[in-house]
Design a protein that fits this description.
This protein is mostly beta strands. The chain folds into 3 domains: 306 residues, Pectate Lyase C-like; 76 residues, Sandwich (Jelly Rolls), CATH 2.60.120; 86 residues, Immunoglobulin-like. Helices cover 2% and strands 40% of the residues. The chain contains 1 helix and 55 strands. The strands form 9 sheets. A 14-stranded parallel β-sheet has the order 1-2-5-8-11-14-17-20-23-26-29-32-35-38, with helices on one face. The protein is globular, with a radius of gyration of 25 Å. It starts with 8 loop residues before the first strand and ends with a strand.
Length: 619
């Protein structure tokens, strides 16, 4: 991936127009679909570095036999809805290239095989802020499929996506929202991450995620109201599951096969069949299953796999909190589990071993309706450190030292002073899911309204912002930005219009002709999306806004990199107190292309607390 010195925008509204634009496009060019609805569109994006997007994000919908194939590298596809189509046994989006970004996509009510498939030889594909919903046919094909190469990990990411309303029996129907690998790829290392995604009413199959390859990470997702399904570690070793919320589902995590899995810092509540299920499975018997620092409350039992000839071996439960079971906390013990510093409250269901201690946990229902330990809980500072370490995985940034809790609050370095369970007690800490329906999927489907205005002012003049009545006074934060462009020169304006009334007027007092103006109004949800920071707008042209939320005094290092990791010279290093902070970066001199925003949070002892990356489209 590279940044490109020159670029062209092609505006298209027909299949022939798209094909002609693709034939003439070069790396760095954008093909922009005009707003509208289109039938039987085939987008074969076969040029490296091309951006295919919508004139207005979400304002373009395609149906009928519409589909996309991406055999090229460094491609971006964004802003398009695929609605009520029928492509038979084809895939809606097929990706064979590498360094591809698919974002702000909605696929709903389609008849197809996969909604999206990533080929074995692809690498570093990011699927973000997209919605996958209600495939009409019940054929044995999952929704989002990642295939795995024998020799080279994919390092793909699925993030901030929503998976909703897949009907079915819950049996082995093959309607899993996500599957990584297939049975024959069990020994291959995928190293893919599913993070900050939301799954609800996905009952087409018993598996919400089907993990069938090695070294994949599932973190900070919300699985809610899935009455027939659970996350399943099938084939492949070293699955990592942490920071997730499993709420009101049939189950939480089922471990069917494999070795050296790690399940930690998760919250389980309202699971009506089982919370964690360790299977007694002949095909690839479980061994070295590590379950640390989880909170399991108001749920059916943990099933330990004691019945059968292939019982799990090397199972370690350490520093977990189990409370208020619907019947009992455990069933089917093998008698060979290792229990370290676990705390219980309620009917145990098995013979109590050492390391599984009954206490008064003093759980409290917080303002969001979730259970967490109070200031007097016996779980505080009662962790133990004698459990097998979580390994690092090459090329992946995971919290293998459990330095953060479920809510990404800092935990003590010494495990013996960590709190038992998923939550590290703090007076102002609140347990609640990182993501939900409103902060995942495309912004145009959420409660966050999006309003854009383009106009032209010559010399001095006024720009009127007049979105739908009551927009500013809705009670949420509204940020308006205006960029006034004259050739390569620009000036900027921004302001917080929260609680004001329509219309708002920006007065431009300039001494030169203004050849183009761009105004964006963004209604920001009160919660910064999941990871504690956000960038907007994306795609961006002149100014990039960065909001950062810090829950402890920190040093922040923010860098804007090329897709290959080279520095652009744009970024900052600064110290921040606890709270919300807003930063604006000038990116007007960057060439069009795909960039990476890297943000790292350090303690004042220079210890890395958290690290994240997100792709940015520069238009």
């Amino acid at each position: 991936g590279v940044a490109y010195a020159q670029s062209t925008n092609f505006s298209v509204s027909t299949q022939a127009g798209f094909d002609d634009a693709m034939q003439n496009a070069s790396a760095g060019d954008s093909i922009i679909w005009e707003s509208g609805s289109y039938q039987d569109i085939f987008m074969d994006i076969d040029k490296d570095g091309v951006i295919v997007t919508a004139e207005k994000s979400g304002g373009v919908s395609v149906t009928g036999a519409s589909k996309v194939e991406i055999p090229a590298d460094d491609v971006t596809l964004s802003g398009i809805q695929f609605l009520s189509g029928d492509i038979g046994t084809d895939h809606v989006i097929q990706i064979d290239g590498s360094d591809v970004l698919v974002t702000q996509i909605n696929i709903k009510d389609y008849t197809s095989y996969k909604y999206l498939i990533i080929d074995e030889l692809s690498q570093r594909v990011i699927v973000s802020y997209s919605n996958f919903e209600n495939r009409l046919n019940l054929d044995d094909q999952n929704i989002l499929s990642i295939l795995v190469d024998e020799n080279t990990p994919g390092y793909h990411k699925v993030q901030y996506c929503s998976f909703k309303n897949f009907d079915g029996t819950g049996n082995d129907m093959g309607i899993e929202p996500i599957r990584i690998g297939v049975s024959t790829q069990a020994e291959y290392e995928s190293r893919s991450i599913v993070e900050y995604c939301y799954f609800t009413n996905c009952d087409g199959d018993g598996e919400l995620i089907s993990n069938k390859a090695a070294q994949n990470v599932f973190r900070y997702n919300t699985f809610e109201n899935n009455t027939k399904a659970e996350l399943v570690l099938r084939h492949g070793d070293q699955g990592v599951v942490y920071g997730n919320f499993f709420i009101n589902n049939m189950g939480g995590v089922r471990v069917r096969e494999g070795q050296n899995h790690f399940i930690y810092n998760n919250y389980f509540e309202g699971l009506d069949k089982r919370s964690i299920y360790l299977q007694n499975e002949e095909s690839d018997p479980l061994e070295n299953i590590h379950i640390y620092f989880n909170t399991i409350v108001n749920s059916a039992a943990v099933l330990l796999g004691g019945e059968g000839s292939f019982e799990p071996k090397g199972v370690v439960f350490a520093n977990n909190l189990f409370a208020q079971p619907t019947e009992s906390l455990f069933e089917d013990a093998t008698g060979n589990e290792t229990w370290i510093a676990n705390l219980t409250e309620g009917t145990l269901g098995i013979t109590r071993p050492d390391g599984l201690t009954e206490v008064d946990l003093e759980l409290e229902t917080n303002s969001e309706g979730y259970l967490q330990i109070g200031s007097g809980s016996a779980a505080i500072d009662e962790g133990a450190s004698e459990y097998p370490a979580i390994p690092t995985i090459e090329g992946l940034d995971i919290d293998e030292d459990i330095l953060l809790d479920l809510m990404r609050q800092t935990r003590p370095t010494d495990a013996a002073t960590k709190d038992v369970g998923a939550f590290e007690y703090s007076a102002d800490g609140v347990v609640k899911p990182h993501v939900n329906e409103s902060n995942t999927g495309p912004i145009y489907l959420s409660d966050q309204e999006f309003f854009t205005l383009s106009t032209t002012v010559v010399g001095s003049g006024e720009i009127n912002l007049n979105p739908p009545s009551g927009f500013y006074a809705s009670g949420t934060s509204v940020i308006a930005t205006a960029v006034i462009v004259n050739g390569s020169q620009f000036t900027g304006w921004s302001g917080d219009l929260s609680g004001t009334t329509n219309p708002q007027t920006i007065t431009i007092d300039g001494n030169m002709d203004i050849t183009a103006n761009f105004t964006e109004v963004l209604n920001i949800d009160n919660e910064i999306n999941g990871k504690g920071w956000r960038i907007f707008p994306n795609p961006s042209q002149h100014k990039l806004n960065v909001d950062i939320r810090t829950n402890q005094a920190s040093k922040i290092q923010l860098e804007l990199l090329t897709i290959t990791g080279q520095q652009t010279g744009i970024g900052l290093q600064d110290s921040f107190v606890v709270g919300d902070h807003s930063i604006q970066l000038d990116i007007s001199d960057l060439s069009k292309g795909i960039y990476v925003v890297s943000i790292k949070q350090f303690g004042f002892d220079d210890r890395l607390i958290h690290s994240e990356r997100q792709n940015l489209i520069k238009q």
